[in-house]
Design brief:
By secondary structure, the protein is mostly helical. The chain has a two-stranded antiparallel ribbon with strand order 1-2. Strand 1 and strand 2 form a beta hairpin. Helix 5 runs parallel beside helix 8 and helix 44 crosses helix 47. The N terminus and C terminus are likely disordered. It comes from Nicotiana tabacum (Common tobacco). This is Protein EXPORTIN 1A isoform X4.
Length: 984
């Protein structure tokens, strides 16, 4: 290896002219060399580094290329190693490279102090940048490195690279030992910066008009400040001189935050979020001195006087940041991102249009900004309120009027819902809603009114607590929404219907009681004027409206009134339904008219929307139409089958067949929605399930594949999940109707009938979970079909199908383990399941299933070490000698299986892995980590994104974060909290 490296270095050193001509070739050679060093010969680095440094000293051109090799080496080991190498190997590589860094350090310092060659100095700075995040601190703080970097910083040719190096150093944090050097570095830096970029510079304007280098400088400056402040802001709070420099740095960062560049703003926003969280937590925990002391790094117990002193320190710190935080509030209000609920946007031509697609980056940004603004609100409610009302007054008087200014302001106002005390929030909202309604009245132009309407709807939708406490405002707002439902500007009606639903969900009880000054409940008044209110709405908007009114009716405690309201709500669709069924009884051909089919579909969709809100209380309505609905279903199914039978597969794509199938699907969806939402009352199941057996299940079995509705599968999965063991007697008929014919549809390939695939396995899982005795009664051939289909499912590359298959497999394994057929089942399927699970675990296509793969394997290995299986798993006719127990047999089988599958791994490595599995069967985290290390070690998972292997830990972290957010008023939006609102 040493000879090979020396030859390469000699080649690089031999011909400078060739080096210049062959830059691409040399670049590829560098990468190859680094890969070899990284993976094959880490122990030989001690000879490589001296050889490389010696070569670098032969000429400046060669030195430049040597710097490129060193940079690549650092990046490969420290930036790109996770998931490619085991933790032990990464540690060895780091130690090896670290021990040789002195030579690299000396070379870099020599070049920076002695060379006049611009490209070499730039290459050296780039190399240093790659190393600075991990080298021993002495090389940084106990040498002339920082001093050298600060001398280069003012020079335009090196400014950005130097700033990147200084940023890496700023991000390091190893306690207080180097605090003095950090303060000195920051102070010198700020003096130099004021010369380069005077504090009064309009940074957003300078950025907009700057060159690429100048724009990169602003971005790098944002990275420097955020990195330094994240790790070392405390050390700058120690003296007035340092505080002045700190406040100046924050002022720079706020100005940079106004730059119209998404990436620059993301960098700044990330830091502002962390700073205000820190300030908020200290403020929030003032009542808990021990927690505050722990957060500030104080480990000593606090006496009462010390606690008082700590409180004073925290108050002083809040005062110190009061000015920057006030400016930050204005920044957040001025740049607030668009929330998901807002549907009305300005297009590239300056027109107000309905949004067609959500921008996920904007939604993520909104979430972070909202969180930041809520912390800022908690830190100073009065300043937050003052800034928002001041900006709103400038909208009213026209001084600051623009669509963007009003939008960002209202999005900010809506985002802080729940963060103020209720009394202050009420006072604030009264002024805000009053001013917005006035603005809507005085402003001319349809586009302007659409923007204002959008903002009114967003703001009121965010404050259900306020609306519940102020009936007159609530009624005014809802009536305003009804006005907007007649406004045909794109997006306004949709948003009005969405906001109405959101408000009703949180305030529904207010609409079913007689309020002071009213003659009847609002819901009764609404039902009287319902035809007028929905006159200008599209069908999908009417469905949303019916869902909202259903929510109101569901809140009515009096059954008689509730049934009366339901009957009044359904008058319009029921009149049309009665008319259609009456005409059909006279001539069945009436149902074949496309306009009639559309009307039937619309009626069913309206019913589904109401059923989704009313649940059990929808029973009188669905009973009224149920049998006629099944007759229409049967007739349309026959029409579809005839069309496809006569016209072949092409017929299924004709508009008439698509329309007929939409009616069938909506029928199934309506029944499923009702049964799913209804309370678990057996008599409801007994009333609705038997009449469906032939029209729905029989129809599915009789139909040609292209005419089978996947919703049949999900409907019966819902029924079994709902009524559980009560459905055992019906499972054979369900199985007979759907199993064989669906398998034939979905096992020909991985593409056809995607909906049937997922819903079929969901149905199987429901049966395995709640009606397992019915599966035990299957013949061995039928059970084999089930197991083959499960294996087929978890092999699937569609994540939902694979996960459903794995969950179903786990249900089957647990149920058979607890049954009298455990020996028979596992003897037949144990080895097949183990082999198939290892196949998907290691094929790199099924990473999202990692958690479930691990659970299946853990189940299998725990099982063979238990006393549950009393018969051998091996076949005595094919195994030459008996094993002492099943565990020993499975251990040897697994070693053979993996050795054959991974010839690149030694027998010792495979044996060690299998032994580790058996040793950790009862410790899931250790078992899981053991498998992760094996996947990396096998090299099957090298150079890939392996985040799915850590998905479970990421999900747990998300849940911990949600629990933390729930503890802070306003941090979870009112409409995201799934609670049953109780009116005060």
């Amino acid at each position: 290896m040493k000879n090979y490296i020396s030859e390469v270095i000699v080649k690089l050193s031999s011909d400078e002219a060739s080096l210049r001509r062959e830059k691409l070739y040399i670049s590829k050679l560098n990468i190859t060399l680094v890969q070899i060093l990284k993976h094959e010969w880490p122990a030989r680095w001690r000879s490589f580094i001296p050889d490389l440094v010696a070569a670098a000293k032969t000429s400046e051109t060669i030195c430049e290329n040597c710097m490129a090799i060193l940079k690549l080496l650092s990046e490969e080991v420290f930036d790109f190693s996770r998931g490619e190498m085991t933790q032990q190997k990464i540690k060895e590589l780091k130690q090896s490279l670290n021990s040789e860094f002195q030579l690299i350090h000396e070379l870099c310092l020599y070049v920076l102090s002695a060379s006049q060659r611009t490209e070499l100095i730039r290459a050296t700075l780039a190399t240093l940048h790659a190393f600075l995040s991990w080298i021993p601190l002495g090389y940084i703080f106990e040498s002339t490195l920082l001093e050298t970097l600060l001398k280069l910083f003012p020079m335009p040719a090196y400014r950005n690279l130097t700033l990147q190096c200084l940023t890496e150093v700023a991000a390091l944090n190893f306690g207080e030992f180097y605090n003095d050097q950090y303060v000195k570095k920051y102070t010198i830096f700020m003096v130099q910066l004021q010369t380069i970029l005077p504090p009064n510079t309009n940074i957003p304007e300078a950025y907009a008009n700057g060159s690429n280098e100048e724009q990169a400088f602003i971005q790098n400056l944002a990275l420097f400040f955020t990195s330094f402040f994240k790790s070392h802001i405390r050390v700058l709070e120690t003296s007035q001189e340092n505080i002045n420099a700190l406040l100046l740095g924050l002022e720079y960062l706020i100005n940079i935050s106004y730059v119209d560049d998404t990436e620059v703003f993301k960098v700044c926003l990330d830091y502002w979020n962390s700073l205000v969280l820190e300030l908020f937590e200290a403020h929030h925990n003032l009542d808990n001195p021990a927690m505050t002391a722990n957060m500030m790094g104080l480990q000593i117990p606090l006496l009462s006087g010390m606690a008082d002193g700590l409180g004073a320190q925290l108050m002083q710190r809040r005062q110190l940041y009061a000015g920057p935080m006030s400016k930050l509030r204005l920044l957040m209000i001025s740049r607030m991102a668009k929330p998901e609920e807002v549907l009305i946007v300005e297009d590239e031509n300056g027109n107000i249009v309905r949004e067609t697609m959500k921008d996920n980056d904007v939604l993520v940004q909104y979430k972070i900004m909202r969180e930041t603004l809520i912390y800022l609100s908690h830190l100073d409610h009065d300043d937050t309120e003052k800034q928002m009302l001041k900006k709103l007054s400038k909208q009213l008087n026209g001084e600051d009027w623009s669509w963007n200014n009003l939008n960002t302001l209202c999005w900010a106002i809506g985002s802080i819902s729940g963060s103020m005390l209720e009394e202050q929030e009420n006072r604030f909202l009264v002024m805000v809603i009053r001013d917005l309604l006035n603005l809507c009245e005085i402003t001319k132009g349809k586009d302007n009114k659409a923007v204002i309407a959008s903002n009114i709807m967003y703001v009121v939708g965010q404050y259900p607590r306020f609306l519940r406490a102020h009936w007159k405002f609530l009624k005014t707002v809802v009536n305003k929404l009804f006005e907007f439902m007649h406004e045909t500007h794109p997006g306004v009606q949709d948003m009005a219907c969405d906001t109405f639903l959101k408000i009703v969900q949180k305030c529904k009880r207010k609409f079913v009681v007689v309020q002071v000054g009213e003659n009847e409940p609002f819901v009764s008044e609404l039902l009287t004027t319902l035809p007028t209110t929905i006159a200008d709405l599209e069908p999908h908007q009417i469905h949303a409206f019916y869902e909202s009114v259903g929510q109101m009716i569901q809140a009515e405690p009096d059954p008689q009134k509730r049934d009366e309201y339901l009957q009044r709500l359904m008058v319009l669709p029921n009149q049309r339904w009665t008319e259609i069924i009456g005409q059909a009884r006279q001539s069945v051909d009436y149902l074949k008219d496309q306009d009639v089919i559309r009307a039937v579909l619309n009626i069913l969709q309206t019913n589904t929307s109401a059923a989704s809100s009313l649940g059990t209380y929808f029973l009188p309505q669905i009973t009224l139409i149920f049998l006629d609905m099944l007759n229409v279903y049967r007739m349309y199914s026959e029409l579809i089958s005839t069309s496809i039978g006569q016209g072949g597969p092409f017929a299924s794509r004709t508009s008439i067949v698509k329309l007929l199938r939409s009616v069938k699907r909506e029928t199934l969806k309506l029944i499923e929605t009702f049964l799913d939402k209804a309370e678990d009352q057996p008599h409801i199941g007994k009333q609705f399930v038997p009449p469906m057996m032939d029209p729905v299940l029989g129809d599915y079995a009789r139909n040609v594949p292209d005419a089978r509705e996947s919703e049949v599968l999900s409907l019966f999965a819902t029924i079994i999940n709902k009524y559980k063991g009560a459905m055992i007697e019906d499972v054979p008929r369900i199985f007979e109707a759907v199993f064989q014919c669906t398998l034939e549809m979905i096992t020909k390939n991985f593409e056809d009938y995607p909906e049937h695939r997922l819903k079929f396995f969901s149905l199987l899982r429901a049966i395995a979970t709640h009606c397992f005795p019915a599966l035990i009664r299957l013949s061995s051939e039928q059970l084999k079909l089930v197991m083959d289909s499960i294996i087929w499912a978890f092999r699937h590359t569609e994540r939902n199908i694979a996960e459903t298959g794995l969950n179903l497999l786990l249900e089957m394994l647990k149920n058979f383990q607890a049954s009298e057929f455990a020996n028979q089942f596992y003897r037949t399927y144990f080895l097949t399941i183990e082999q198939e699970i290892f196949a998907v675990l290691t094929d790199t296509f099924h990473k999202p299933g990692f958690k479930l793969h691990v659970l299946v394997l853990q189940h299998l290995f725990c099982l063979v070490e238990s006393s549950i299986l009393t018969e051998p798993l091996w076949d005595a006719s094919t195994v030459p000698y008996p094993y002492p127990n099943n565990a020993m047999f499975v251990r040897e089988y697994t070693i053979k299986l993996l050795s054959t599958s991974f010839p690149n791994m030694t027998s010792a490595e495979v044996t060690q892995f299998v032994s580790g599995l058996f040793e950790s069967t009862n410790d899931l985290p250790t078992f899981k980590n053991h498998i992760r290390d094996f996947l990396v070690q096998s090299k099957e998972f090298s150079s890939q994104d392996n985040k799915d292997l850590f998905a479970e830990e990421a999900a747990a972290q998300r849940e911990r974060e949600r629990q933390r957010m729930l503890s802070i008023p306003g941090l979870i939006a009112p409409n995201e909290i799934q609670d049953e609102m109780v009116d005060s």
